[in-house]
Amino acid sequence: MEFDLQGYLKVRRTMVEDALNTLLPVESERPQKLNEAIRYSVLAPGKRLRPTLVIAAAEALGKAAEMVMPVACALECIHVFSLIHDDLPCMDNDDYRRGRLTNHKVYGEAMALLAGDALLALAFELVAANPCSVPLDCVVRTIHIIARASGTRGMVGGQVVDMESQGREVSEETLFYIHEHKTGALILGSVEAGAVMAGASQPELEALRVYGRQIGLAFQIADDILDVVGDEARIGKPVGSDQERDKATYPRLFGLEKSREMAHFHVQQALSALGPFGQGADPLRAIASYIVERDL
Amino acid sequence: MEFDLQGYLKVRRTMVEDALNTLLPVESERPQKLNEAIRYSVLAPGKRLRPTLVIAAAEALGKAAEMVMPVACALECIHVFSLIHDDLPCMDNDDYRRGRLTNHKVYGEAMALLAGDALLALAFELVAANPCSVPLDCVVRTIHIIARASGTRGMVGGQVVDMESQGREVSEETLFYIHEHKTGALILGSVEAGAVMAGASQPELEALRVYGRQIGLAFQIADDILDVVGDEARIGKPVGSDQERDKATYPRLFGLEKSREMAHFHVQQALSALGPFGQGADPLRAIASYIVERDL
Description:
Two copies of one chain form a homodimer. By secondary structure, chain A is mainly alpha-helical. Chain A has helices spanning about 5-25, 30-40, 50-60, 70-85, 105, 110-130, 135-150, 155-165, 170-180, 185-195, 200-230, 230-235, 240-245, 250-255, 255-275, 280-290; strands at about 95, 100. Chain A has one domain (about 5-290): Farnesyl Diphosphate Synthase, CATH 1.10.600. Helices cover about 70% and strands about 0% of the residues of chain A. In chain A, strands 1-2 form a two-stranded antiparallel ribbon. In chain A, strand 1 (about 95) and strand 2 (about 100) form a beta hairpin. In chain A, helix 2 crosses helix 6 (about 110-130) and helix 8 packs antiparallel against helix 9. The radius of gyration of chain A is 18 Å and the shape is globular. The interface between A and B is large, with 54 and 55 residues.
């Protein structure tokens, strides 16, 4: 019987959104506007890919979603923090995100800046609170993984090089750096965090790292392709916005056909890494395949 | 014999700056500009009050500075992250900080935004790396303390209410909220973090919390007073800049004389809380007294 990915994603998404709703600061408490701004962006409809990866990695190791829920929420907080800051006028200056006005368009630049800052801090607060009493060495390693994946050697580093590359010819190596860091680092970090919280053995962790790295690359290539061929309603932003900004993308450097091949290649690598895992890893397998099945 | 505070501060400041120099990402590594921007602001001359408080709290409990050095550096990273974002055009729009051009004036707004973001992530990476093998429950509790002190219920929350209050009459309660959160939370968090890393007992931790809270309040009142009566070279920003921005301050609400009394009152409370501690707490005592001796 085939694995029902859509059903799986829906259940996990609802679990994550319920948990976020509970864990986020409430609008009735001071500072109200900030809490409102935070909730506005985090609770906007989203795929919840990163938290779902945290959960799916833990499930592949036989652990329940509940055990990693605070870490799953933390990864979503970090993702949304990056979106809010990315949309600011001094960055991409976007008016819409996930089909709604961007945070700064509703709450102003200063509030959006601070909402993003607060979300990054909240992520670490959620993990360190450790309500499920996961062994402390797992918690500390997870915090280290998440922090590193977010900073200069992770997501923020990728954003900087992406920004510096706009309007310039970039080498293959630079494009790879951008993709591996800007999107890849947090996707890999999600898989690693779920695995470490679930008490992965060293070989299990290494296999899941290969998986995380490969789907991160596939995901970003797929995103680049969708920016060229996708449909606006599905991707939630105007088609061609990367081209307009003269951003470094795979289709631009390699053409569409070769880019599609590369995305499939990375997904195959990801699936191979899951070889030793049993049925528990079916969600991870289905997620990997889904990345390149999204109308590329 | 009187405690030589200036000598103490100088030695600790040098230790912290040496450690920061080692722990910060280097300019020779990608992303170079980001790493340069980070080092520019963090290594600018500063008092290093927060890291010194981390160290002094640990020393009051008989532990060596080295044991808490990564946490001390983390607190400085968080402080500098807040300064960089605070100076941005959408916030205070300041051109100078610590006598040098602000980060965004040198590196541009986008880079300054990302340098701040990266510093917040780095803070947690430094603590979680735990190179001194401090017991893991202390590390996790410290991360929780620092994260909470930085976010909606801490520093960022205070910044938001401060921003919302500009140009308005504020109540005593709101002014207190702003001061307790905007500056107080991270000063208290520094003392708590140092104490927890040093393995403080519950009564020790509670006493040091009172100390941290009281000096946080005293410090912010003193800062407000210096903005009115201080000398520009010493405070590193133009005298009267709070008034100009119509910011909520103690002198504005209570007048100068009453504000001075309140600052002294909080320092006395801080000193009383240190009653049970021996000579090891002399640095904490001297720091508290110094806060209200800065030409108020």
